[in-house]
Amino acid sequence: MRGYFGIGSEGLSKPHNLGVILRTAHAFGASFAFTIGSDLDETSVRQTDTSGSATHLPYYRWPNFDPARFPEGCVLVGVELTDDAVDLPSFRHPLNAAYILGPEKGSLSRPVQDACAHIVKIPTAFCINVGLATALTLYDRSILFGGHAPRPLVQRRRGQPGVKHKTGIGQNG
Predict the structure, then answer these.
(1) CATH number, domain with residue 11
(2) Which DSSP string corresponds to the chain?
(3) Which of 139, 8, 149 is nearest to 79 (CA)?
(4) Cα–Cα distance between 79 and 100 in angstroms, integer?
(5) Residue 171 within a domain
(6) Is pLDDT above 60 for 72?
């Protein structure tokens, strides 16, 4: 994958959501993960972060938002369901980005939204879980930058041999 990216949330309050964000960030090859204004830490998430992300990527827990904490040249992308946000499937992800998602029950603060170069939304009828929003955002980025082969014109038929499933621990590091 080209470039780098980080992902995090502002005002996160539930440990299982942080665990999902960290595990998903790790699975998609994030360079870092973060929270803004959250008291949660990586030790409270073992039930949902079964990949041990804390040993594989940096996790930053910032008490407040400060855009100067992000690397120079890192484009801030808010993920928020607003009327003027760009639909995620139409969004051209920046090469170097930090994605900031809102809290479980609320929206990104006005200072965070104002600091973001882009606000994107997942085109759903209503807000979805922050962990699921993380996965969809990073999956969309991986389609753009992941170097995947084009989709085949003909799909594999049922009954043909498939590929063995890999787990997140042991086999993959």
Answers:
(1) 3.40.1280.10
(2) --SEEEEEEES---HHHHHHHHHHHHHTT-SEEEEES----GGG-TTT-TT-GGGTS-EEEESS--GGGSPTTPEEEEE---TTPEEGGG----SEEEEEE--TTS---HHHHHH-SEEEE---SS---HHHHHHHHHHHHHHHHS-PPPPPSSPPPTTS-------SSSS--
(3) 8
(4) 6
(5) no
(6) yes
Beta bridge partners of 149: none
Domain, as residue range, for 85? 4-145
In this predicted model, what pLDDT tens digit does every residue of 76-125 receive, in sequence order? 999 999 989 999 999 999 999 999 999 988 999 999 999 999 999 999 99
Whether 54 maps to a domain, the answer reads yes
Structure pTM? 0.85
pLDDT for the residue numbered 102? 93
Q: Which amino acid is at 100?
A: I
Q: Residue 36 falls within a domain, yes or no?
A: yes
Cα separation, 145 vs 27, in Å, equals: 15
Identify whether the C-beta of residue 79 lies closer than 8 Å to the C-beta of residue 95. no
pLDDT digits (tens, 9 = 90+) for 26-67: 999 999 999 999 988 777 777 777 788 878 899 999 999 999
Q: Quick check: is 66 in a domain?
A: yes
